[in-house]
């Protein structure tokens, strides 16, 4: 009787495996990242410059002693709290008007919140960390201050020069134009 019971159990188990079917389920997840956004708080202002000099707008110092009326530009970015971001920016910008061009060479510094504590950044090489702790899901921020040098030739035509004037080409015709830009990419 015991042998028969064991045989019946074995046959039952084998039969149940023969009729067993697998059921597959998909598992999905969505990982979100807070998009990078920016606010241009202040444009770079070189101020009044004399011919034959170089105006320097120090991105770390608000005084700008050799360029009265100068102001460093300020950009604030925000994104995923604690995230690392690679920074790239144009080395120069062409300023122009109807009679001539000048080349502004940018200098960029950054810090989470304090201009006086900002450190120099190198385009395409520097990475920054947004404020906060990575993985907390909140929003972090970082500030950039943009300054630089603008050499003004002794024969430079007088007048107002800007990156928004002209078509971005260089030459003696004074085309100028072509805004300075910065690119930010999450790591």
Written overview of the protein:
This protein is mainly beta and 187 residues long. It has one domain: Immunoglobulin-like. Helices cover 9% and strands 34% of the residues. It contains 1 helix and 10 strands; from the N terminus they run αββββββββββ. It has one helix spanning 2-18, and strands at residues 37-42, 54-57, 73-80, 84-89, 92-96, 101-111, 119-120, 127-129, 139-151, 182-186. The strands form 2 sheets. Strands 1, 2, 3, 5, 6, 7 and 9 form a 7-stranded antiparallel β-sheet that branches. A hairpin with a 7-residue loop joins strand 6 (101-111) and strand 7 (119-120). The model has no long low-confidence stretch (mean pLDDT 83).
How many β-strand stretches? 10
Radius of gyration: 31 Å
From the coordinates shown, what is the CATH architecture? Sandwich
How helix-rich are the residues, as a percent range?
under 10%
Helix-strand pattern:
HEEEEEEEEEE
In the residues, how many domains can be counted?
Answer: 1
Q: N- to C-terminal separation?
A: 71 Å
């Amino acid at each position: 009787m015991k042998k028969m019971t064991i045989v019946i159990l074995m046959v039952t188990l084998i039969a149940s495996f023969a009729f067993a079917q697998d059921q597959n389920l998909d598992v999905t997840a969505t990982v979100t990242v807070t998009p990078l956004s920016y606010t241009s708080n202040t444009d770079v202002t070189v101020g009044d410059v004399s011919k034959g000099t170089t105006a320097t707008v120090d991105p770390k110092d608000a005084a700008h002693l050799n360029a009265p009326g100068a102001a460093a530009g300020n950009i604030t970015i925000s994104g995923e709290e604690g995230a690392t971001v690679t920074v790239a920016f144009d080395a120069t910008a062409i300023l122009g008007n109807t009679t001539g061009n000048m080349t502004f060479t940018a200098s960029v510094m950054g810090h989470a919140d304090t201009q006086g504590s900002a450190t120099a950044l190198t385009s395409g090489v520097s990475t920054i960390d947004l404020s906060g702790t990575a993985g907390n899901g909140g929003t972090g921020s970082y500030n950039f201050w943009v300054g630089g040098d603008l050499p003004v030739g002794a024969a430079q035509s007088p007048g107002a020069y800007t990156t928004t004037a002209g078509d971005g080409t260089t030459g003696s015709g004074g085309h100028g134009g072509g805004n300075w830009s910065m690119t930010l990419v999450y790591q």
